[in-house]
Amino acid sequence: MNLAHIIDPHPADKVAIISRGRPTTYGSLREQVAHVRGGLAKLGVGKGDRVVLLCSNGRYFVDLYLAALGLGAVTVPLNPASPAPEIEREVRTVGAKVVVVEPLAAHAWAQIDRVHLPTVEHVVATETGTVPGADSAFDDLLGTEQVAVIEVDDDDLAALIFTSGTAGSPRAAMLSHGNLMANLEQGRSTDGINEHDVVFGVLPVFHIFGLNVVLGLTLARGATVVLVQRFDPFTALETITERGITVIPGAPPLWLAFSHFDDAPADSFATVRLALTGAAKMPEEATRHLQQRFGLILREGYGLTEASPVVTSSAGLTPKVGSVGKVLAGMQVRLVDENGDDALEGDSGEIWVKGPNVFKGYLDEPEATARVLTADGWLRTGDIAVVDDDGYLYLVDRAKDLVIVSGFNVYPAEVEEVLMEHPDVLEVGVVGVPHPHTGEAVKAFVVLKPGATAHEDTLVSWCLDNLARYKCPAKILFVDQLPRNLSGKLLRRSLV
Fold first, then answer.
1. Rounded distance, CA 180 to CA 338, Å?
2. Which domains can be identified in the chain, with CATH numbers?
3. Contact by Cβ (8 Å): 26, 11
4. Is pLDDT above 60 for 255?
């Protein structure tokens, strides 16, 4: 087996990707990837070698990702917009042999002293002459003789994906060919992407959601993905109409932007049959607004890097507002209490996941791995949920984000949901801060809607009307924006 085979079964004349307005058929894609595979092999890339991809959503990433997989190499997608110190640390952590750099990352890469990266043997520029110190270019790889895909074992590593770092320093999660392929197969249990779909590919491919759900699932199904490098609501709506987009996977910030785009026509999403969200909890008010205004039925799901990533989905189900759907076929999920026992019916508990999609651990971090993987293969997610009588899962919050006020548990997401219901509030992030009397207190960071004038006292009163007193913010700060990673997840550790 090899994950690179996902593009093999589809008709040669079917469009696989559209990048910068240029369509590439599955037949052309297979030929290009085979040539690039030969080019990487000529550089000495083989099974187990680390290939870093400092590339955004586009043709270069797709060709290089599939080519490296086909050689049995380990792909390492990184954010090309990252600062030099972060890139240097991540390249050094994985022991990269080859680093591919697109123009967006050229400036940061030029600031890195290669002496600190002793394992790097080759630097490839996606565009000739754009990267100082590059010894080859993408066109050089493309001009090399084709090389066939090698077969690998299920447990052979396919990718190292750095986690979001919402709960500490990012770590490289080890995902095998079997992990990623299993999640693609598990996705077949839902009424998700099919061969007739045109998928809006704006989620970054260096993030697991964009990599294995948007890119991987689209190519595995023989559908078409329109790769988008930057998001703005106006251009996005033009693309959706012009390309006849049928599926939009997006993090909550994307859907919030659409919900507040007052100039958008009511039929903007007429071609869209499936609107998906994940990576963070979607505000219920925005979900309802999107349905009322555009007729969009937003289907929420849940996943994490360590699960390749999808665990639950609402695709193909009668959606319930606030729910992330049901567990995909082919995996097990438990809700576990603080004692490690199954939570009582109706009670919340930490989500534990088991199945062929669960990762192999964190690279060179056995202690961190042992904290999240049990001896018998259960993944402790750190996420708190409840399940209803129909098997629908509802996220309560992350266990590590729990705020304890005078001995009482406060889940930030609950407070955020209430504040989001206020007509003047656009976004909100809630954290716990030390308090001399109660141990911790709730602190909220609020982004107001344009033109809104709500004051701290107004929002505190709103919370008092809707929450127990101990759950209400002791302090509210107004900010211009909240810190989020590129998947849309709130970076609580950055809120102070």
1. 30
2. 3-152 (3.40.50.980), 185-398 (3.40.50.12780), 402-494 (3.30.300.30)
3. yes
4. yes
From CA 467, how far away is CA 459, in angstroms rounded?
12
pLDDT at residue 165, as a whole number? 43
The strands making up 475-478's β-sheet, listed across from edge to edge, are 425-435, 439-448, 475-478
- Ranking 271-285, 292-306, 452-466 by mean pLDDT, the lowest is 271-285
Task: Give the SS3 label for residue 428.
Answer: strand
**E strand map for 3-108:** 15-19, 22-25, 50-54, 74-77, 98-101
Q: What is the mean pLDDT of residues 45-63?
A: 98
Residues 56 and 318: their CA atoms lie apart, in Å, by 35
Provide φ and ψ at 99, rounded to 5°: -125, 125
Q: Which of 318, 321, 300, 322 is nearest to 310 (CA)?
A: 300
Query: Quick one: pLDDT at residue 321?
Result: 82
Instruction: Output the pLDDT for position 309.
Output: 95
**pLDDT above 80: residue 279:** no
Helices (H), 251-326: 252-259, 284-294
Q: Which residue has the higher pLDDT, 63 or 440?
A: 63
Joined tokens for residue 422: 């206020």
The burial of 341, by beta-carbon neighbours within 10 Å (0-12 exposed, 13-18 middle, 19 or more buried), is given as exposed
**CA 282 to chain CA centroid, nearest Å:** 14
Backbone torsions φ then ψ of 116, nearest 5 degrees: -85, -5
Region 423-441: what's the mean pLDDT? 88
* Ranges of H-type helices in 189-347: 208, 217-221, 233-243, 252-259, 284-294
Report the C-alpha dihedral over residues 69, 72, 77, 83, rounded to 10 degrees: -140
Q: In this structure, what is the dihedral angle of CA atoms 136, 142, 144, 145, given to the nearest 10 degrees?
A: 160
The mean pLDDT value for 45-68 works out to: 98
Q: How far is CA 38 from CA 24, 67, 85, 102, in A?
A: 20, 8, 32, 20
User: What is the chain's Cα-based Rg?
Assistant: 23
Number of H helices, E strands in the chain: 14, 25
Contact of 71 with 47, CB cutoff 8 Å: yes
Q: Three-state SS for 407?
A: coil
Q: Considering only CA atoms, which of 251, 172, 181 is closest in space to residue 210?
A: 251
pLDDT at 439 > cutoff 90: no
Element (H, E) at 466: helix 456-466
**Eight-state DSSP code of residue 211:** I
Would you state the structure tokens that stand for residue 461, as one six-digit string?
A: 């009163």
pTM of the model: 0.85
